[in-house]
Amino acid sequence: MMRVGALLRRLDPDLLDRWYFAAGTALHVEGRKPHRREVAAELLGQLGLDPGLVDAAIDDASTSDEVRADHDRVTSLGGWGVPTLVFAGDRALFGPVVIEPPSGAAAVRLWHLMTGWLDFPQLYEVQRPKRAQDLHAIADTSRPYLEARDWKTVQKETP
């Protein structure tokens, strides 16, 4: 998925946005596997793009280099997970993590709340306690993603 994204970003950043929305919906909502070539090709076709871009991205070793460079940049800033947002070259924020993403004016408000953290460089964490019903909602929402993954998560303590 990431290598297809790297290739699309080179062509047009708007294509990257469309790709991540389609791939994210497929993985997190529909429980599909956009990390598999055939699903990625199908998604590109649904976006009106050439499904052959999947093979082009995989055949181009520089897409792997680009993805690795993005990863290394985030980890060099202290990032350790996704989503990690990077601002002004060297400032990173982890999150937001939401199970019902807002849209419209509410999404803009959330963006302003997130970027407001940049005004407080010594603020490192704010977290909402999770009750039993919250954990059930998170589990239910995450089920398509967890079932579609073909990889194991390496559990590491939060730095």
Q: Which runs of at least 5 residues are low in confidence (pLDDT < 50)?
A: none
Average pLDDT metric: 91
Helical segment count: 7
Helix content: 55-70%
- Judged by helices, strands and strand pairing, the structural class is mainly alpha
State the end-to-end CA separation: 27 Å
Tell how many strands the DSSP assignment holds.
2
**Strands in their spatial order, largest beta sheet:** 1-2
3D shape: globular
Round the Cα radius of gyration to an integer and report it: 17 Å
The largest pleated sheet is described as: 2 strands, antiparallel
Task: Note the beta-strand portion.
Answer: 5-15%
- H-E string: HHHHHEEHH
Could you characterize what this model shows?
The chain is mainly alpha-helical and 159 residues long. 57% of the residues lie in helices and 5% in strands. The protein contains 7 helices and 2 strands; from the N terminus they run αααααββαα. It has helices spanning 2-11, 13-29, 37-46, 53-59, 61-76, 104-116, 132-148, and strands at residues 84-87, 91-94. Strands 1-2 form a two-stranded antiparallel ribbon. The longest helix has 17 residues, at 13-29. The two termini are 27 Å apart. The model has no long low-confidence stretch (mean pLDDT 91).
Summarize the structure.
By secondary structure, the chain is mostly helical.
State the main characteristics.
159 residues, two-stranded antiparallel ribbon, mainly alpha, 2 strands
Task: Furnish the topology, listing elements before pairings.
Blueprint: H1 2-11, H2 13-29, H3 37-46, H4 53-59, H5 61-76, E1 84-87, E2 91-94, H6 104-116, H7 132-148
Helix pairs in contact: 1-2, 1-4, 1-5
